[in-house]
């Protein structure tokens, strides 16, 4: 559930639905201190004191879009991992005018099981059924995948695919998202090409981009890290850009 920033934050009405709880949990999972997170954010051009990280995690202040991007990079996560859920599963169904029985039928589960899914706000079904459910509720495939809880596994698979042999992850990704195998193949191939091209020379921290100075250009390694941290967004953008099948 989204945690809105307190009234004392004048930027409140401009801010994304940031989750302080998620930010703290991700930091603790990585074994990082607020000082280390602040240092990591500096690689993305955002300079903040450790106290600002603590303020984010306590809900005293909320990061703006630039700070959110840097925080996600420092925590090696997708921006969506730091956001609260805006719409519940029940809300999607009711907005589509779909009955409980129709939703359960689309997923191929007993009504009691579907009611439990709505109570827990999570879909549990194979990708083919998730696709039918998304169609019944007129949901984008991306949102259906989010509700199925497959995002973390998908992010791990995509990260491994672009860093290694992408063909070896086609089946894994296809088992996580309700998309045609050919679409997954095309998307992974494009993502792999982009990342590998970006990663050339990332160990050379003195790399200078054309027309830019060393002072105002982030290291190539930081650039590839930032891209990788947002791999889910790149995946969906790539899928959207592919011709329909």
Detailed description of the structure:
With 245 residues, the chain is mainly α. Helices cover 58% and strands 0% of the residues. Helix 2 (34-42) packs across helix 4 (65-74).
Short description:
The chain is about 60% helix and about 0% strand. It has helices at about 20-30, 35-40, 50-60, 65-75, 90-95, 100-105, 110-120, 125-135, 140-150, 150-165, 170-175, 180-200, 220-230, 230-240. The longest helix is centred in the C-terminal third of the chain and has 19 residues, at about 180-200.
The major sheet is characterized as: none
User: First CA to last CA: what distance?
Assistant: 36 Å
Low-pLDDT stretches are 1-16, 202-215
* Helicity, as a percent range: 55-70%
Mean pLDDT: 82
DSSP strand tally: 0
Report the portion of residues in β strands. Answer: under 5%
| SSE series | HHHHHHHHHHHHHH
Shape: flat
Determine the number of helices (DSSP H or I, runs of at least 4 residues): 14
Structural class call reads: mainly alpha
Q: Please give the radius of gyration in angstroms.
A: 20 Å
